[in-house]
Write a sequence for this structure.
């Protein structure tokens, strides 16, 4: 078998393990050719490494660990699960924020032009010229 | 119990989430092992994946299969883990630069087997897989570790089958290049 043909056969290793007859041919050739032996070793190691990794199994208690982690740290948010002191702090904070907001709003309202005395209120009625006088003058 | 029945029952009774974990944990774990090669890290990733699934189970619409959804979450988790690790190793190499003696070594291994054996052949293979581009690596892991068809990989990666074929071919070429770079 030529080295070229041997390399072609070895390429099957990338897709899946070749049939035993092919492996035997490659093994026989590898015993004679140092360069092909290296290639054969690498191809075989490639498959062995992946197969070995696929055989690794997780810890048998992994599912329990996951469920426990979810139950302790990742429960859905529930207001009633909060402790009373936390609820008090949360309520106080909300009230302070609302009060602060109302306070700022009041400041704005007291300075707004609608609350100031209108210009019309300073209008002096007495200074208006009597329309009757003006009419008589015309006549 | 079908996938949708299982999900609906979990939505109504979250305590049944354990059934889903037991059913799919090996799928998630195997994919994670393909990316990280370490049992403990793969277990941590598996845990994070199921926590994400638990939080987002209400958003699962059933457009794709549950397995496809799980594969996507697992791949995202693995990639983000790898990016974190890469960032950490960059920081470490930066600190090593300031602390280590940087005189170059004069011992160069000569033959490919010497190089590979020195580094341990299986480690060299894992390193070669790790050096693949992200998309090639995803396609390679799903094809080799999970033994998925190109059609299934295409669904998971949201690309067409031709693109998957091309990614796998490029991955093989790059792996061959990496592993046989010293081959005469």
């Amino acid at each position: 078998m030529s080295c070229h043909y041997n390399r072609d056969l070895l390429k099957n290793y990338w897709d899946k393990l070749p049939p035993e007859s092919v492996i035997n041919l490659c093994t026989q050739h590898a015993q004679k050719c140092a360069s092909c032996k290296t290639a054969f070793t690498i191809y075989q190691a490639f498959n062995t490494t992946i197969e070995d990794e696929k055989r690794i199994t997780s810890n048998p208690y992994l599912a329990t660990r996951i469920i426990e982690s979810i139950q302790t740290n990742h429960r859905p948010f529930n207001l009633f699960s909060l402790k009373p002191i936390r609820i008090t702090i949360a309520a106080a904070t909300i009230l302070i924020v609302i009060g602060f907001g109302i306070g700022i709003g009041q400041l704005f309202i007291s300075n707004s032009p609608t609350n100031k005395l209108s210009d019309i209120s300073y209008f002096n009625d007495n200074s208006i010229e009597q329309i009757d006088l003006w009419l008589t003058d015309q006549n | 119990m079908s996938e949708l029945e299982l999900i609906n029952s979990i939505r109504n009774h979250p305590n049944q989430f354990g059934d889903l974990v037991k059913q799919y944990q090996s799928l998630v774990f195997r994919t994670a092992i393909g990316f990280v090669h370490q049992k403990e890290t793969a277990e941590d990733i598996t845990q994070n994946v199921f926590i994400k699934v638990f939080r987002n189970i209400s958003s699962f619409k059933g457009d794709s299969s549950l397995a496809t959804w799980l594969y996507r979450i697992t791949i995202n988790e693995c990639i983000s883990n790898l990016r974190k690790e890469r960032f950490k190793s960059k920081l470490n190499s930066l600190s090593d630069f300031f602390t280590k003696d940087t005189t170059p070594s004069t011992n160069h291994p000569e033959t490919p087997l010497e190089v590979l054996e020195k580094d341990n052949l299986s480690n060299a293979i894992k390193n070669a897989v790790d050096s693949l581009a992200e998309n090639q690596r995803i396609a390679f892991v799903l094809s080799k570790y999970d033994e998925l068809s190109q059609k299934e990989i295409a669904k998971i990666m949201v690309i067409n089958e031709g693109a998957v074929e091309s990614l796998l071919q490029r991955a093989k070429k790059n792996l061959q290049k990496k592993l046989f770079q010293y081959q005469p």
